[in-house]
Amino acid sequence: MVVQHNLTAMNSNRMLGITQGTQAKSTEKLSSGYKINRAADDAAGLAISEKMRKQIRGLTQASANAQDGISAVQTAEGALTEVHDMLQRMNELAVKAANGTNSKSDRQAIQDEVDQLTTEIDRVSTTTKFNETYLLKGTSSNGKAGELTYNTAKTAKNADGKTIFTAATVEANGAEEFAVTKLTSAQAVSTGSDADKNTTWTGKSVAFGQVTYKIIEEVKPDDATEASTGTAAELAKNLYEAQDADTKKTTKYVTSLEEAMKDVRANWASDVRNVSASTDKTGAIKVKVEAFADTNNAADLGLHVGADSTSDNKIAMNISNLSARGLGVNGLRVDGDNGDNATAAIDTIAAALQKVSDQRASLGAIQNRLEHTINNLDNVVENTTSAESAIRDTDMATEMVKYSNNNILAQAGQAMLAQANQSNQGVLSLLR
């Protein structure tokens, strides 16, 4: 029997400490609901589950992003519904104005309503936004809308070779008026004189972004042209127009400067606000060009619908500039002495209607895609959460069994420690 070292008590105390430590961990797991509360509980499981948590939380937010995208689509599509209705009304008015039974005042009354509808289309495009993001305005670029250059004219025989048009630039959203040098008697072409087949009456180049449009107007090769004092406009009797956009080229003949200007207004309405030409009583030609800034770039609302940064997790939602300019109906004319303007307006409005229809169809397709995207994201979140739960969550039934077992062992250990502490009392009886 020894007194200095009670090995039985020491062993009982050590085992009791182990049991109590295990019991404390069980208590922590039962109270927190997690079987991994620190890295030491399961280092590998912690690393795996944290990656899963990142994916779960990222995908949950991606689902919310997609839902926001649907809301933005619905906002834009609702606005375009009204634009569609206004364009349909404008088409109705244009058809009405094209009828020969209308007087000039009748067409002016129709024009007034068309102007109001055009203004409202612009208002809708500039005020429709979602979370401070404008949806229908497109994106604007800085600088000049384009350059309209008048080349030095080559004159017909017997003319003195004076420059008719001079180089000039139209600033973005600005207007410029160019006076053409009038022909005097000294410049007049002789009666019956044949025009040189290479004679160029004027050339104009209009550049917008990456596309350059060229209009070449020249006297037809076999034309005999007569001009007298104060009749400079006669040079426009037969004009040849060539349009060159990138590598594509189309040609047509026009019979007057006004017809050429009308083609410019019709074909490039989204780039040039208006091109007009007129002659005064002295025979001077004035060309007025009103240009827009190039804002036809589509607004790109890139939707991030994934937990990672890869491009596959981006859905592009492009909405074109759907202002009156973007639709080509800005400055639309249905008035006048006859129905010519209204007849031309019908085709312009038809193109605008098609553009809005295409945009609405695109938005509808995006909305359907986003709905499927949300369903898939929610499914992935659910399954990943299940996998993360299996790694990290406490199995309450199993852990309660462990806790009960450790509780019994703790009570037994305390009893045995008490008994071991009493074992040295026998030494005192030997000393009496």
Distance between the termini: 16 Å
- Taking all Cα atoms into account, the compactness measure Rg is 42 Å
Could you tell me the number of beta strands?
14
Mean pLDDT: 73
Q: What structural class results from the helix and strand content?
A: alpha+beta
User: Could you name the CATH class of the largest domain?
Assistant: Mainly Alpha
Major sheet strand order: 3-5-6
Proportion in β-strands: 15-25%
| Low-confidence parts | 141-255
Write down the overall geometry. Answer: rod-shaped
CATH topology (level 3) name of the largest domain:
f41 fragment of flagellin, N-terminal domain
How many domains? 2
Q: Give the CATH superfamily of the largest domain.
A: f41 fragment of flagellin, N-terminal domain
> How are helices and strands ordered from N to C?
HHHEEEEEEEEHEEEEEEHHHH
Helical element count?
A: 8
The largest β sheet comes out as: 3 strands, antiparallel
State the helicity in percent bands: 40-55%
Q: What is the CATH architecture descriptor of the largest domain?
A: Up-down Bundle
Question: Main attributes?
Answer:
432 residues, alpha+beta, 2 domains, three-stranded antiparallel sheet, 8 helices
Summarize the structure.
The chain is α+β, with helices and mostly antiparallel strands. It folds into two domains: 34-140 and 298-393, Up-down Bundle (f41 fragment of flagellin, N-terminal domain); 142-294, no CATH class.
